[in-house]
Amino acid sequence: MTPTGRTRDAGWELGVRRTIPVPSDVVWAFLVGDGVTVWLGETALPERIGQSYRTSHAVTGELRGWTAGRRVRLTWRPAHWEHDSTFQVTVIPAATGSTIALHHERLADQGERDHMLVHWRAVLEALIDRLVPEVPPED
């Protein structure tokens, strides 16, 4: 039996997603605007396919795909890794708002997958905290 997250040809992968009561156009505008620092880090999101980026935490990569209003796909490589991986953030319209889906593949092993799963879960929670306003307490 194949362990969870092991792929046939792309190493290890993970995905986290959550549906929130926010329209997809609002989520998208945030993800490619002020929200870039939440999911990618302190950097400018590349404007063209093939353009590279470098974050303040020494993560490097290049933009590989862009579907406006839907998905950003890029390579993702921290300074201490010896390989590139691929990360994408997707916005999916849902009946109750939008689903934010984070997917990371081409991870080296189970340990790297476990580490990144913790990271991306925290990132997803941070995105939601910024997108979904606090509900005031009832009187």
TrEMBL record:
One Pfam family per UniProt: AHSA1
Family: Belongs to the AHA1 family.
Protein name in UniProt: Activator of Hsp90 ATPase 1 family protein
Stretches assigned to the Activator of Hsp90 ATPase homologue 1/2-like C-terminal domain: 23-127
Gene3D superfamilies, sorted: 3.30.530.20
Native source species: Amnibacterium flavum
